[in-house]
Amino acid sequence: MIIGLTGGIATGKSTVSGLLKEKGFAIIDADVAARKVVEPGQAALERIIEVFGSEIVTEEGTLNREKLGAIVFHEEAKRKQLNAIVHPAVREWMLSEKEKAVQAGSRTIILDIPLLFESKLEWMAERTLLVYAAPAVQLSRLMKRNNYSEPEAAARINAQMPIEDKKALADDIIDNSGPLNATKQQVEDWITRLNLCV
Ligand SMILES: CC(C)(COP(=O)(O)OP(=O)(O)OC[C@H]1O[C@@H](n2cnc3c(N)ncnc32)[C@H](O)[C@@H]1O)[C@@H](O)C(=O)NCCC(=O)NCCS
Ligand SMILES: Nc1ncnc2c1ncn2[C@@H]1O[C@H](COP(=O)(O)OP(=O)(O)OP(=O)(O)O)[C@@H](O)[C@H]1O
Fold first, then answer.
1. Which residues are near ligand 1 (CB < 6 Å)?
2. Which residues form the signal peptide (predicted)?
């Protein structure tokens, strides 16, 4: 069974994927992929430099994520340009990691993809699981975790499909608005209901 795990920024995808990993499930994380494909020497980084200029990398030649984030989360056209460079390479990496997990005998594979619905990637999974948090909770957790001002956090949230809209698209929902143990219980119940094996 291939599961597409998604959510909004800071709604708790990593928290839930961490719980699933502890139980032994195979997790393939698009945020990890998005970092790997822009490492020095990768074609995607060269393209980013062509489009955003050489000031987008540090003296060591690595991507200046803070600088790029400040641009793309405030300008949709620039974000689309970045997505067009990075997303094809991310998808390729995800599919190849999924194949490795299948070969290794994993019976359930979790694809953690923040932009699953925005990028219409439902075809990559048999079932989708949304990690939801109420919008006010999402905003305050994001501000706290990243030390963002409210406008900085809101810009990032607004770069995604509203979390309430994602609710209508998901097969299953874990509500992570409450305390961690309530989330843990929902994860246990979901595994039992779907009869998932690692
Ligand atoms: C702009 C970048 C350099 C900012 O890096 P930063 O370290 O600050 O953030 P990080 O990569 O950890 O992402 C944090 C979260 O932001 C959200 N996010 C990231 N990129 C995007 C995007 N293009 N559109 C909407 N939301 C996004 C996701 O929820 C993600 O989980 C980076 O996010 C990036 O390269 N984004 C493009 C690739 C992408 O779409 N990644 C998301 C999953 S494939
Ligand atoms: N149930 C909870 N109660 C309190 N804090 C939580 C809870 N779940 C997650 N958090 C905190 O909220 C923040 C966001 O959670 P997490 O990093 O798991 O989200 P995410 O969806 O993976 O984020 P991103 O989209 O940026 O990758 C973290 O600081 C985390 O510790």
1. 9, 30-31, 34, 65, 68-69, 72, 79, 82-83, 86, 90, 114-115, 156, 159-160
2. none
